[in-house]
SAM-dependent methyltransferase (Streptomyces resistomycificus), 269 residues
Amino acid sequence: MQEPEAPEPEATRRAADVTESSRANRGWWDRNADEYQVEHGTFLGDDRFVWSPEGLDEVEAELLGPPEDLKGKDVLEIGAGAAQCARWLAAQGARPVALDLSHRQLQHALRIGGPFPLVCADAGALPFADGSFDLACSAYGALPFVADPVLVLREVRRVLRPGGRFVFSVTHPIRWAFPDEPGPEGLTVSASYFDRTPYVEQDDEGRAVYVEHHRTLGDRVRDVVAGGFRLVNLVEPEWPAWNTAEWGGWSPLRGNLIPGTAIFVCERD
């Protein structure tokens, strides 16, 4: 006899603390890693470093520095997924470590392979000694999903050496005021940009199964500073003409009118 399908989670806006957010998102990514890699694996490639759905590539962006300067550098990728970025870094001669909250995502990294360690851990409690890395990066990893981004930023600062750089990309904060739709319906403001209440999907017993946290652009800048970093660049990628793909709420229509991604380039003094 076929098991009945689980009911669809309820989408709501409510508070979600550090523990609930971490537990919910670990479970969500473990359950959805297979589908995510099937749907987006071609776009991401096995060994490309793509910062965002706009398709901004580190080869051109050089946000971590010129590729030739990466050789011999210890680099931590946070929220690595299948470790596509770490694989590209290794090809440049860097020594990456790929970290993710989701064991299933890291199984995809293991399936593809690569000459670097895979670590399953929470970004708010990095299992590394102080000053272990020259650089850190996170392409839509961890920061959009954590209740306390300053805790993560302080942890990243702790494991970086003096002069180290941390570059991370997140959904552009302005997107929270618009419906998450790629078509014309996604171009009309439907919520307050200033409402920081997390987006939560919960089961029929009220337990969160997915959590995403909103920060305004000013919040993100203040978080960077409170985390002990100096903000040296803020990149808002424009939608390129070659990219005809849709990715969730990202699309050429929306991308040509409003920003979809914010990339923060931070340095530790």
The first helix runs from residue 18 to 44. The helical segments are 18-44, 58-61, 84-91, 103-112, 149-159, 217-226, 252-255.
